[in-house]
Each structure stands twice: as C-alpha cells, then as structure tokens.
Amino acid sequence: MDRPQEKAEILTTAFIGVLTARASGAFDRLPDLDADDLTSLRLRRERSTSMRLACPTDRRRG
C-alpha cells in the first residue's frame, strides 16, 4: 500500500532529527558528513528496509 502522507511525515521528521543532531553536537561524525553522504546513507538504508519488507524471511527456521 502506497502511503505518501506517512512517508512525507517520516522523511520530514528524519530530516529535522538530523539537523537537530548536527547542531547539538550529539554525535561525533555526523556534523562532518555533507549532503551527498547523508543522502547516500539514507537511500541505502531505505533500500535495505524495502527489501526486507518485500522479501520477509522466517528467522525462526534453522
């Protein structure tokens, strides 16, 4: 199911979180990342999550 409103809200929240974390100095390496690095990491994470949702596996099986 495509849920554009929820996706937009999550993306906005994540963006605000990154800006807040960068400004506060809460993380050592985050302030050093440029926009390209942040975008690349975010897209990689989104693809990984999408793949797990599209192809779930039963981890209980051995």
Structural overview:
This protein is mainly α. 66% of the residues lie in helices and 0% in strands. The chain contains two helices and no strands.
Quick structural gist:
It is built from two helices and no strands. By secondary structure, it is mainly alpha-helical.
- The succession of helices and strands, N to C, reads HH
The pLDDT mean sits at: 78
By helix and strand content, what is the structural category? Answer: mainly alpha
| Count of runs of 4 or more consecutive helical residues | 2
State the total count of DSSP E strands.
Answer: 0
Q: Layout of helices and strands, plus pairs?
A:
Blueprint: H1 4-24, H2 35-54
Structure characteristics:
62 residues, mainly alpha, 66% helix, 0% strand, globular
